[in-house]
Every structure is written in C-alpha cells, then in structure tokens.
Amino acid sequence: MATFDEISIDISVVLGTTTMPVHQLLRMGRGAVIDLDVAEEDDVKIYANNTLVAKGQVVLLGERIGISITEVLLRAPEVRPMRTDGPL
C-alpha cells in the first residue's frame, strides 16, 4: 500500500451552477449571495481529477462543512481490443 501514499487526487465538489455576466460578478462584494440552480435537498456532484465519481449531501459537522456520499458512480468498463493471438 505504500505506493498509494504518493498519489495525489484533486477533489472538487459542485454545489450547483448559474450564469451571470462578468460585470455583475465583478460588482459583487463580501456577503453577496449567488443564486444556484439547485434546491437544498439536491445532491452535490463530487469530482476526482475533473471526473464525476460520486454524488452526496452537504452536512454540518459542528462549525465545519462536510459531504456525505450518497451514491458512487460506476465507470463504464474500458473497451480493450480482443486478442487474436491465443489465450490471455
């Protein structure tokens, strides 16, 4: 397992999305609220190295915020060319 200790993964959580003009974004100050296209009970999307890998719910852990994973998304199996030169 020691080799796995050296692997870095960038984890991102997307709460929701919205569209707004850049000039509106630049005028926002501290405390401004951005309205997202999701409801409070909707799942957030969890990405590992820019690949969607799971969905989850936002949870409060005292004064910290966490994500509870509700669904792990399975990747489609990789398509490998069939060998024709004998047994595997």
UniProtKB/TrEMBL annotation:
It is found in: Cell membrane. GO terms for molecular function: cytoskeletal motor activity. GO terms for biological process: bacterial-type flagellum-dependent cell motility; chemotaxis. It is a peripheral membrane protein. One of its GO terms (cellular component) is bacterial-type flagellum basal body. Gene3D superfamilies: SpoA-like (2.30.330.10). Belongs to the FliN/MopA/SpaO family. This is Flagellar motor switch protein FliN. The lineage of its organism: Bacteria, Pseudomonadati, Pseudomonadota, Alphaproteobacteria, Hyphomicrobiales.
